[in-house]
Amino acid sequence: MDFYSYEYLISNQDNSRLIKLIVVGLLVVIIGVFFFLYMRNRFEIKYKDLGIIFATTLLLVIAIQYNDYSNLLTTQKQTGQITGTIKETAKQLGVKPKQVSVNSTTQTDGLLVNTPKGFFRIDFNTDGSSFLLEKIELHNPKINVVRR
Fold first, then answer.
1. Percent of the chain residues topping a pLDDT of 70
2. How far is residue 13's CA from residue 10's CA, in Å, rounded to a whole number?
3. In this record, what's one Pfam family (predicted)?
4. I need a labelling partner for 22 at 20 to 30 A (CA). Which of 1, 41, 97, 107 fits?
5. Does 23 have pLDDT greater than 60?
6. Which residue has the higher pLDDT, 51 or 16?
7. Dihedral sign for Cα atoms in the order 46, 21, 146, 88
8. Which sequence spans correspond to the domains of the chain?
């Protein structure tokens, strides 16, 4: 069973953003070059066609970027909720948040928590604003703590 450390949850997990920004920048430069070549040689239609192809590709990449951005906002919101839960759990148990790990990256009912004081289950109320912390025993636990 995988447990995720506090450091893992607060670290930025989207390393592909830089690559996507480089691709967008490269496409903008290519479109600019083809536009320049087309304006210089108006009788060469191939530059116009290639510019249109790359502009369409740029629009597709921008649409994908927007989708990834909205997914990132949702993930950050969920991560913020779970890290808040970890902080509150650590406070109640008298341990540091860095010593706490959970079995899910999102706030779900029945969340399992691994601490130096043992394993606990968190049951949330209906709106998720408060929770019940209950000590449990795991039989044959095979724990893998995912760290940053």
1. 95
2. 9
3. DUF3290
4. 41
5. yes
6. 51
7. negative
8. 2-146
Q: Look at the alpha carbons of 30, 33, 38, 44 in this order and tell me if their dihedral is positive or negative.
A: negative
State the pLDDT at residue 13: 52
Confidence (pLDDT) at 15: 57
Angstrom distances, CA of residue 60 to CA of 15, 21, 56, 67: 20, 13, 6, 11
Q: Are 6 and 83 in contact (CB under 8 A)?
A: yes
Phi, psi of 24 (to 5 degrees): -60, -45
12 backbone φψ class: left, alpha, beta (φ>0; ψ -120 to 50): beta
| 125 torsion bin: left (phi>0), alpha (psi -120 to 50), beta (else) | beta
At 71, phi and psi to the nearest 5?
-65, -40
